[in-house]
Amino acid sequence: MSPEANSPGARSRRRGRTSIDLRRLGRAALLGPAGRDRLPDAIGHVAEAHRAHHPDADLLVLGKAYVLAEMSHRGQFRKSGEPYITHPLAVTLILAELGAETTTLTASLLHDTVEDTDVTLDQVRAEFGDEVCYLVDGVTKLEKVDYGAAAEPETFRKMLVATGNDVRVMSIKLADRLHNMRTLGVMRPEKQVRIAKVTHDVLIPLAERLGVQALKTELEDLVFAILQPEEYERTRAVIADKAATGPSLDTIAVDVRRTLREADITAEVVTRPRHFVSVHRARLKRGEMRGTDFGRLLVLVGEDADCYAVLGELHTCFTPVISEFKDFIAAPKYNLYQSLHTAVAGPDGEVVEVLIRTHQMHKVAEAGVVALGNPYAPVDGAEPADGERADPTRPGWLSRLLEWQESATDPDTFWTTLRADLAQDREISVFLADGGMLGLPAGATCVDAAYAQHGDGAHGCIGARVNGRLATLSTVLVDGDTVQLLLADAPVQAKGDDRTGPVAGQTQEAAPGPSPEWLDHARTPAARIAIAGWLAANPESLKVPESEPRAPGAVTAGRRGVANVVVDAPEATVRLAGCCTPVPPDAVTGFTVRGGAVTVHRAECSAVGRMAALGRAPVAVSWGDEAECRVTLYAESFGRPRLLADLTEAIATAGAAIVSANVEPPSEQRVRHTYTLQLPDAAGLPGLMRAMRDVPGVFDVRRAQHEAAS
C-alpha cells in the first residue's frame, strides 16, 4: 500500500501549495549544506512557509540546525528508500505551515538526532540553548534495551510530563506521527495496525485536546484507512459519486456571499469538504446523504462583532435550524476552539451547516496551541513572576493527567488508564463552595470532584452538597454545578445551623475510607487509582459486615423523678425544658407554668425572651450538688450500614445511658437521630459530643435548641 493510498487528504493538501517531492529533497540533502550566505535548498520550502507566518524570523538558526541534522543523519535511510533527513524536513514543514515559531522548528529538525545518531543533548544545548534541548529531549524515545516492553508507555509518560512544562513537545510529536502515518505503507501490515491503534487511542485524542484540528483530521483519515479499510473504500466511493453529481454546497455559498455583500459585511465564504471520517460518521447517523452533507460553509470575518452580524443576516434571510446553533465564542471549548455554529435551509430545502469565525479564530481552530507561537515568551519584555513560566496552554485535563500518572507506577496501569482517560472527549466545569473551580471530564461524579479537590484527603469524604442540596457521592455532575464536599475530618455546617466552630477531636485516622462501590462511581483516573490503592492497603474494608439489628423507631426507659436544680419555690414541681435541655454548668432561669410547676430553661433559650414579653416573672434557679444530668442531643448523619450501632457504642463508651432514642426516616440522604441521655457527670458532655462526631458518617452533633410552644 503506497503512502498516497494511506493519505486520503493528500490531494486537498496539494491544492494550496506546490507539491513537495521528498525524493528531490533527499537528493538535495545528500549534496550537503549550501553556501554561507543562503539557506540550503533542501529547506527552502520550510523557510518559505515559516516566513509566511513570521516575516521577521531569523532563519540562520534553522540553517545551522539543518546542517547538524543532515550531517548526523547522513548515510541513514528510511524504509521507503529516501535519505533519513527527509523525515525531519517533512515534520518541520508540517509545523511551519501551521505557524510554529523558530524554536519549535529548530527542535523539529533535530528531534531524531539524539535518538538515532551520536549527537548528545549536551551538544544540542551548547549549540542551540536550553529550550531547544528540552524539546528534543522531550520527544526522544526511551531505549527498549533499558525498558523492554515498558518502553512505549514510559516514553509517552516522559513526553506527557515534558508537555506539562512545554506544550511544544507534543506539537513536534504529533507532526512526527503524521509524517510517519503518511509513509506507513512500506511497513508490514501487522505493524501498520499496531501503530494505527496507538495513534487512534492516544495521539488523535491529544491532538483534539490541544486543538490542532489540521493534524487531527488527517490522522483520523489515515487511521481509518488502515483499521477499517472496507468502510474507508465505501466512504471514498460515496464521496466520488457525490463529486460526479455536482456541488450543491457551492450554490448556497453564492447566495450567502450575495446576502452578506448586500448587508455591507466584509466576509470570506468558502466551502469546506468534510474529511473521510466525518463523512463516514454522517452517513452512519443520517443514512441517505444529501449534497450539502458532504461539507460545511465557513465564513471568515475580521472582528468578533462581525461574527454575530453574519449570524443575524443568515437567520434573517434563510430559515435557521435553531437546534443546531452553538456559541463557542462566548463559551470557548477547552481546547481553545472558538466559532459560531448554525445551520440554515436553502431555497430548495437542503440544510447546510455554517461555521462563523474571525481569521484569528480560524488560525487557532486549525493549529491549536501551535498558533500561540511561543507561549512562554515574556510579555512586553517582562519576565513571568518569580521566574516561573506562565503557561496558558496548561488546561485542566493535562493537569489532571500529570497528577494521576504519578500514582500509576506500573507501566501497564499507566498505559491502560491513559487510553481510558483520553477516550473521554468532553469537559465540564464545576464551581466549589469556596469560590474555586474544577475542570472534570463529562460524566464525572462527586467522587471525582472530591479527589480532584482533596487528593488522598478525599478518602474521608462522607457526602456532598450539589447546588446547596445534600447529594450522594454517586451524583453525576453537569456543567455549571456548585459542589461542596463534606469530609469527616473537617468542620461541617449542618443545613439551617449557623454555627461555624471546628469539630474538636477529629483526625484523618478516624475518618471512614472509600468503599468498593466508589470505584463504580469514579470516572477520573486519579480517583480510581487512589481508591484502588486505599482498598489494597486496607483489605479489611472489603469484608462484608455481619447482619445488623434493625434500628428501633423509638426506645423509652425510666424517667428521672427529680431534676438536679434548686428553685426559689420549695413545694413546686421542677422540670427541665425540652426545648433547650439545660445541664450544669449552663446559666439557667425558671418560669412558673400551669399547675404551679417551674420549667427551667437555658438563659439563651428563645423561650426566655418570649416569657418575659408575656410579663411572666422569672424564678431564681441554681444547680444542686448532684453531678448527674440529662440532655437531649441531635445527631445529623449520612446513612450507612451499622451507623446506629456505632453511635450507640460511642455513647456507651462515654459512660452515658440512653433514656430515649428516635431515628427519623432518611431525607435527602440525611438521617437525624434524637437521643435523650443520662450522664453521670455534666463535665463529660463535651467529650460525649466529640465521640459521637468521630463516628464515620456523622457530620454534626448539637444539643437540642428549638422553638418551644407558647
Folded structure, characterized:
- It is a single chain.
- This protein has 710 residues and is α+β, with helices and mostly antiparallel strands.
- It is built from 27 helices and 22 strands.
- Strands 1, 2, 3, 4, 5 and 6 form a six-stranded mixed β-sheet that branches.
- Strand 9 and strand 10 form a beta hairpin.
- Helix 11 packs across helix 20 (396-405) and helix 12 runs antiparallel to helix 13 (189-209).
Question: How do the helices and strands line up, and which of them pair or pack?
Answer:
Layout: H1 10-16, H2 22-30, H3 44-53, H4 60-73, H5 86-98, H6 102-109, H7 113-116, H8 121-128, H9 130-139, H10 144-147, H11 151-165, H12 168-182, H13 189-209, H14 213-227, H15 229-245, H16 248-262, E1 268-273, H17 276-286, E2 295-301, H18 304-317, E3 319-320, E4 326-327, E5 340-345, E6 351-358, H19 359-367, H20 396-405, H21 411-422, E7 427-432, E8 437-441, H22 446-454, E9 461-466, E10 469-471, E11 482-487, H23 518-521, H24 525-537, E12 554-556, E13 565-567, E14 574-576, E15 588-592, E16 598-602, H25 606-613, E17 618-619, E18 621-623, E19 629-638, H26 643-653, E20 657-663, E21 670-679, H27 685-693, E22 698-703
Parallel strand pairs: 2-6, 7-11, 14-16
Antiparallel strand pairs: 1-2, 3-5, 4-5, 5-6, 7-8, 9-10, 9-11, 12-20, 13-18, 15-16, 15-17, 19-21, 19-22, 20-21
